Amino acid sequence: MPRVSRVSAVEAAIEEIRAQIREGHWVPGDRLPSEAELTEILGISRAPLREAIRALVHAGLLSVRQGDGTYVVAVDESAVAFSRKLKDSKTRDVLEVRRGLDATAVHLAAARRTDDDLTAMEATLRRRREAASTGDQARFVDADVAFHLAVAQAAHNALLLGLYEGLSMSIRESLNTIESLQHAVGEGGDDHEALFDAIKSGDEARAVDIALSIIASQEQQCALK
User: Fold this and answer.
1) What is the reported pLDDT for 87?
2) Is the pLDDT of residue 136 over 60?
3) Are 21 and 56 in contact (CB under 8 A)?
4) pTM of the model
5) Which of the 8 DSSP states describes residue 65?
C-alpha cells in the first residue's frame, strides 16, 4: 500500500482508505487494522488518521465500536444511501429477497470462486465461529454478513455484489432480529460451514440447496417472533 505524501494528510488518508474498501482489501464486516498499524500503513500521525476515520464514519462507510475497533459497513456512499433507505425493511421482506440473491450468488460462486475467494470466506467463517463461542452477538452478525458478502464477491458479478452490499445493513438488522447467534450455537448448529464446503468443491446444486435451507431456517425463526 502506498504511503501518504500529499499536502493534506487527512484527505489523502480518506482517499486511501476508500480505495482499500473499493478494491475489496477491506470489505463490509471487516475490522480495520489498529490505529498504530494504520498510521504505519498510511505514513501519517494519529491526529489526521482520527480525523479521516471520523469523516468516513460520518459518510457511513465505517463504524467505530468503543473498546472493539473500527469496522467497514459499506463500500461507498451510494451503498450507504441504498442501505439507509432499506434499513427499516421488514425481516420477512429481507429474507424473501435474499432467497433469490443467495441462490444466485452461491451457484455462481461454486462455479467461479478462486483460491483468494475461498481464503476470504474461510476468514469470515473463522471470525463467525469465534464470535459464537464467546457469545458476542455483534461480532457474530458482522462475520455472518461478511461471509455472505465474500460469497457474493466470489460470484464475480459486479451487479449482484452491488445489490448485496446495498442490502448489507438490512441483512444485519434482520440477523439481529432473528437471534441467529443462539440458533448457530444450538443443537445441530447451522449450515454455513457446509455451504462453504459445497462452494469449495464446486457443487453448485448442493450449494443452492444449502443456501435455501439457511434462509428457510431463518424464516422459521422469524415466524416464531
Assistant:
1) 61
2) yes
3) no
4) 0.69
5) E
What are the cell numbers at 134?
464467546
Cβ neighbours for 124, distance < 8 A, ≥ 6 positions apart: 29, 143, 146, 147, 150
| Cα gap 115→170, rounded to integer Å | 29
What confidence tens digit (pLDDT) does each residue in 33-86 have? 999 999 998 888 899 999 999 999 988 888 888 778 898 887 777 666 666 666
User: Cβ distance 105 to 152 under 8 Å?
Assistant: yes
| SS3 at position 68 | coil
Half-sphere exposure of 16 (CA within 13 A, CB side): 23
The CB-side HSE value for 127 (13 A sphere, CA atoms) comes to 19
Sorted by where each starts, the structural domains of the chain and their CATH numbers stand as: 9-72 (1.10.10.10), 77-223 (1.20.120.530)
Among all chains, which residue has been given the C-alpha cell 464446486? Answer: 202
DSSP 146-175: HHHHHHHHHTT-HHHHHHHHHHHHHHHHHH
- With cell 444450538, the residue in question is 186
User: Can you tell me the distance from the alpha carbon of 40 to that of 51, in angstroms, rounded to the nearest whole number?
Assistant: 16
